[in-house]
Amino acid sequence: MKRRVGAVYPHLTPLFTPSRFWDLKRRIILDKRAERLCASPENRMSDASILKIEGLEAKVADEDLPILAGVDLEIGKGEIHAIMGPNGSGKSTLAKVLAGHPGYEVTSGSVLFQGSNLLELEADERSQAGIFLAFQYPVEIPGVSIANFLRTAVQAHQADGEELDIFEFSDILTERMELLEMDVTFAERHVNDGFSGGEKKRNEILQMAMLKPKLAVMDETDSGLDIDALKVVASGVNTLTEEDPEMSILLITHYQRLLDYIEPDRVHVMVDGRIVRSGGPEVAHQLEAEGYRGWSEADSVADGV
Amino acid sequence: MPQNETIQDLGLDEYKYDFVTETEPVFRAEKGLSEEVVRQISAHKEEPEWMLEYRLKALDVYNSKPMPKWGGDLSSLEAVLDEIYFYVRPQDQMERSWDDVPDEIKNTFEKLGIPEAERKILAGVGAQYESEMVYHSLREEWAAQGVIFDSIEDGLKNHPELFREHFGTIIPMHDNKFAAMNAAVWSGGSFVYIPKGVSLDTPLQAYFRVNQERMGQFERTLIIIDEGAQAHYIEGCTAPVYTTESFHSGVIEIVVKKNARFRYTTIQNWSNNMYNLVTQRSMVHENATMEWLDGNLGSKLTMKYPSCYLIGEGAHGEIMSIAYSGDGQHQDTGGKVVHVAPHTTSSITSKSISKGTGRSTYRGLCKVHKGARHARSNVECDALLINDTSRTDTYPYIEIEENDASVGHEASVSKIGEEQLFYLASRGIAKDEAMAMIVRGFIEPIAKQLPLEYAVELNRLIEMEMEGSVG
């Protein structure tokens, strides 16, 4: 697949084709902007970091309803992080804010994605930059086939002005569907229209496989799945992370059971719009045993992100 | 998303048929509608006496009928009609070869892609420029099988009995004010006859072009599909954009005989200064099928309700329509199915899209007469609103006189949702493209029925219309 090579492997990029040039130039502008905005030395992130969230506060747009109350989180390249927390703790809001949902307004804090200020980008630009959100409730687009939808999406990820080769696309789609053990006729169905819960989630994974993000945020991908569907989805995700060890994942879930199939490097607990505890996989087991009862800001032990 | 902020840049300005050709008509009647204009039209066409009488009687009927109070806003129409040229004769005769059509007129149709489409996908082509058909041609193979595809004038001249047997019987002059107007001043249109058992495998097409400012076009089409025959007829319409209003009022009469099958496709893309008031009706006989595929994209106001009168046992009627209303446009469209005979079936599927200050109205009738036992009908109308200022209304009339009729009606109104747009954005798809994709998906069930070339063109139009539709 012709991806934005310039963005992924700048050292491999021929410098003088116009689209590459603009792509690089845009990156430089964004980087500079990010530098300017986050100039203090402690805001610099290490090369291994893909996402750095600091003091992020957000509310529902047009309402005075704060949901995120100072989130701090750093994810390294190739790492898998999980955020757990009770209903209404702000997990899904964090996912949507990262993806650029227009219904939320960031009131404070910063988000650096690959060193650039993510919050300046529109949702479609964030996707093009390498962020993917697997939806908790994937949206129906009646009358639009998955193949057509994916072709448009992949085209949007091409470097400026580069035309997607339709035959090449078709080959890649077939190959990706085989990888995820999906029937090729699935591509002719209309996006999420009349899909079962499991089909919707598999469709999200297929999109992820086609767009090859650098950071995939998976919002309760396990909800509404029976154990067989969960295994299929988890194995899809694992296949993709094996294929691209640099891909980072942020899993948002209520339950330990997803983490039995996709093993996280770090687990965070979110309560009342803040991360109140971070640790290794053992945190999830502890939560599973004890529940969220007793987690409050007072006894939070954020052990240094 | 601040959708209402963006109304001002909902560019409908990219209407690609907005070009004018400098042509000198050979004759142009005085402005407005009068007995003299009617007589002049009839004289130019060298018509038999009965037709002149028919026209004059229709003029009386027109004058006696009040302007309709329902449908779209016709309050300023009377003033518009006083300024309209009802008859403009662009050339003296109709040609059978593009080579003989005057260059300016030929170039117009070249720009519209008609001769090319004729070479590629059509069985026959008719082209009307202002008030007259300037070109008509049918592939030799079909002519040899007795197919008639001609201008309505030549139909009257060369096939007087067949013509008179059906003309004005499906849509009588008393039907409505504009049918009466058309009956008085009709000019141009097609005469089609498909003989028994003949199946055309490619469509016939008629293209209607209004070029001059303040022009009125009144084509009249009569189509007879004989027993067991099959055909598909496509009608396309465009005009340049003028500041003054123009007027188009066609009458389309169709007879589909026993076991025959016919589809009539319209892609109306008039400029936004056009009043488009058309009466289209079909009589469907025993076990025959009639399909209307009606695409209304342009015009200032369109009032058009293609109808199927199911008069033979087992007859089937189908109406599929897409209406698109942009800023300042009103599409008042729908369909009528009238079940007269037993075991008749019908369906109406209507999809409308309203953008900016556009307004779409679905107006439909499903009538089951006494004696139409076991009739089945299904009506489905879906409206999509793009902006907060867009409007849609639904007026489904259902009249049932038989107990065993099965009639279903479903209506839905949806707005392009923020969640849909966000979903597409989260896949890297920009807003304009996302809008176009949602709209294309919305009309997909009907668009897929179109010949490929037209479906592609429709998609392109929608993309163009959706540019800049969200902020």
How would you sum up this structure, described in words?
The complex is a heterodimer of chains A (305) and B (471). By secondary structure, chain A is an alpha/beta fold. Chain A has one domain (5-299): Rossmann fold (3-Layer(aba) Sandwich), CATH 3.40.50. In chain A, 35% of the residues lie in helices and 22% in strands. Chain A contains 9 helices and 10 strands. In chain A, a hairpin with a 5-residue loop joins β1 (49-60) and β2 (66-76). The longest helix of chain A is centred in the N-terminal third of the chain and has 20 residues, at 18-37. Chain A is globular, with a radius of gyration of 19 Å. Residues 1-13 of chain B have low confidence and may be disordered. Helix content of chain B is 25%, strand content 35%. Chain B has 2 domains: 21-416, no CATH class; 417-471, no CATH class. Chain B has helices at residues 35-44, 49-64, 77-82, 103-111, 114-121, 140-144, 152-158, 160-166, 177-185, 418-425, 431-447, 452-466; strands spanning 27-28, 88-89, 124-129, 132-138, 148-151, 190-194, 204-209, 216-217, 220-225, 230-238, 246-248, 251-256, 261-268, 274-284, 289-296, 301-304, 307-310, 316-325, 330-339, 345-354, 359-368, 376-385, 391-400, 406-415. The radius of gyration of chain B is 22 Å and the shape is globular. Chain B has 12 helices and 24 strands. In chain B, the strands form 3 sheets. In chain B, strands 5, 6, 8, 9, 11, 12, 14, 16, 17, 19, 21 and 23 form a 12-stranded mixed sheet that branches. A 10-stranded mixed sheet of chain B has the order 4-3-7-10-13-15-18-20-22-24. By secondary structure, chain B is of the alpha/beta class. Chain A binds chain B through residues 99-103, 122-124, 126-128, 132-133, 135, 138-144, 148-149, 152-153, 156-157, 190-191, 207, 211, and chain B through 1, 417-420, 422-431, 433, 437-438, 440-445.
Number of strands of chain B: 24
- Order of strands in the sheet with most strands of chain A: 6-7-8-3-9-10
CATH topology of chain A: Rossmann fold
User: Whole-number radius of gyration of chain B?
Assistant: 22 Å
Number of alpha- plus pi-helical segments of chain B: 12
Order of helices and strands of chain A: HHEEEHEEHEHHHEHEEEH
Structural category of chain A is alpha/beta
Beta-strand percent range of chain B: 25-35%
Number of domains of chain B: 2
> Could you report the average pLDDT of chain B, rounded to the nearest whole number?
90
Major sheet description of chain A: 6 strands, mixed
The CATH architecture of chain A can be named as 3-Layer(aba) Sandwich
CATH homologous group name of chain A: P-loop containing nucleotide triphosphate hydrolases
Low-confidence stretches of chain B: 1-13
What is the percentage of strand-forming residues of chain A? Answer: 15-25%
- Helix % of chain B is 10-25%
